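Morning, I've got a small favour to ask if you have a moment. You're getting the sequence in one-letter code plus the fold written as tokens. Thanks so much in advance, here it is:

===
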Amino acid sequence: MFKKIFIPLLIIVIIAAVIFLKAKNSSNGKDNGIEMIKVKRGDIVENALAIGRIEPKKEIAVKSKMSGIVRTVFVEVGDNVKIGEPLVEIKPDPTPLEFAEAKRNVEMAIVTLERAENEYKRMKKLLNDNLVSQQEFGVAENEYKQLQLRVTIAQERLALIEEGKTKIADRQVDTVIKSPVEGMVLERRVNEGDPVVPLTSYQAGTELFLLANMENLIFKGTVDEIDVGKLEVGMMAELKIGAIPDEKIIGQLTRISPKAKQQENATLFDVEIEIMQRGEKMIRAGYSANAELVINKAENTLFIPERLVEFSNEQTFVEVMDENGEIIKKEVKIGLSDGINVEIQEGLEEGEEVVERPPKEIE
């Protein structure tokens, strides 16, 4: 009977002893919230972050120099157009007064021309009879030719007002607005039947279309004043577009604004990055994007989380465990930081473990 009770008790004692020893050995470990972090090898990159959007380098607003009503629209948003390709036809819509003035100008020019023609014929006859000089005849001839030109101009103006087209010096002139550049139609701002205000020296005129070359895109954004002093024109940047996150897009910094601007109590500087390398998917104007500009880079280096480093009297330390399991401080030399990890230049080896203590509770 004693033997039957003794053996189970002995087993329980042994199990308890094992548990106690394990707990003791780990008293400096995870039971106290302490973790061991290994020193790793990799790349540390210091970046400056710019926040902005993708825009065409140049946008062209197409306008008309003639007033009227939109008769026909030849292109739609997203169409690619070439130089000289028709975009829209404007139907002249003169006021009754404008039409009357144009018609009256033609009639008056013809009457004046007929009078000058009679005078020209009379002077020519007198010249043949040697009754006037060649100079006097030349004056009458010159006036006659000028009035012929004036009649032609008045008739061409009337034709444009009435029909929207005419021919000047073997060149067809009409009210079809053609593309001034090669690119894509980004916006169409008129529809058939809309009135059009002409572009003049005293008014901006109606914008008909917005065109841009979508092969020549740039990133426009801002960087914080903390980072702008580290930037230089020519730095490479990696752009991340939320709409196409898998595409790798590389650009080059081309402009840094010399003047800051205030935005939501922050001091920011405008920057421009020209896109040099794009992925396979189409990049659309207006995409929101972030640009990471590489300031410094340490490749294939040792690093640990920066939170494990202690600073004291211009020296840096980490905590490690010695052979007896005691936590001791060890001086290290650090290098580049990316804000999360920091480069270890001296003091630790790859694979070596560093102590990470639990965060202190706020009382």
Remarks:
- Residues 20-31 have pLDDT under 50 and may be disordered.
- The chain has four helices and 22 strands.
